[in-house]
Amino acid sequence: MGRRGTTRRRVLIAAGALGAAAPLAGCTAGSGGDTGPTAEERAEDTLRRRSAAVSTALLSRYDAAAAAHPGLAQRLAPLRAEAAAHTAALGPEGTRPPTASPSPSPSASRTPAAPATQAGPSGSPGASVPADPAAALKDLAALATTTADTHARALGAAAPEYARLLASVAAASAAHAYLLTAAKPGAAS
């Protein structure tokens, strides 16, 4: 008859079976792999959404001002483009800026009174673009300053990498405020 007891062959087969089954032990349904985002991830997502909403309000106001004052559209276009980039960068992955056209041609065909009374999706009902272009620029500068301040206040709650982005966007928004209130190049003072 055969040999009784533990043989080398049986030991090797058992070790091989245990070795093959060990990686599968972590792949059970209750392993916690699909528990959802952590509290930190949810907090960062909320901060990102709020920050993107603040920049979206500025972006919407650029669109409304350009629509109400087609003569300002060319001057506002680069600032609007930066605000759109900020909105996309600040939001959670997949957040995109509104698809409003930055070119003045569609707004030139509209009646000037209608866009001047709209706030757009800025979240501030009742807000309107001033009828005077200089007042509209001053209004935009005030909103850019508020945007910069809001992003700067959010720095303490942000993770380091996102805080650097917020600080950059806050500085850019402050620069927007300056550029909106600076004398237009070539204009007589």
Q: The biggest beta sheet, please? A: none
Helical residues, percent: 55-70%
Q: Please state the average pLDDT score.
A: 76
One letter per element, helices H and strands E, the order comes to HHHHHHH
Rg (C-alpha, Å): 28 Å
Structural class: mainly alpha
Number of helices: 7
Low-confidence residue ranges: 94-123
Q: Please give the number of β-strands.
A: 0
Quick structural summary:
By secondary structure, the chain is mainly α. The protein is built from seven helices and no strands. Helix 2 runs antiparallel to helix 6 (133-153) and helix 6 runs antiparallel to helix 7 (160-181).
Characterize the structure shown.
The longest helix is centred in the N-terminal third of the chain and has 30 residues. This protein has 189 residues and is an all-alpha fold. About 16% of the residues have low confidence. It is 60% helix and 0% strand.
Per-chain topology:
Layout: H1 8-21, H2 39-68, H3 73-90, H4 105-108, H5 113-116, H6 133-153, H7 160-181
Please tag this protein with its features.
189 residues; mainly alpha; 7 helices; 60% helix; 0% strand
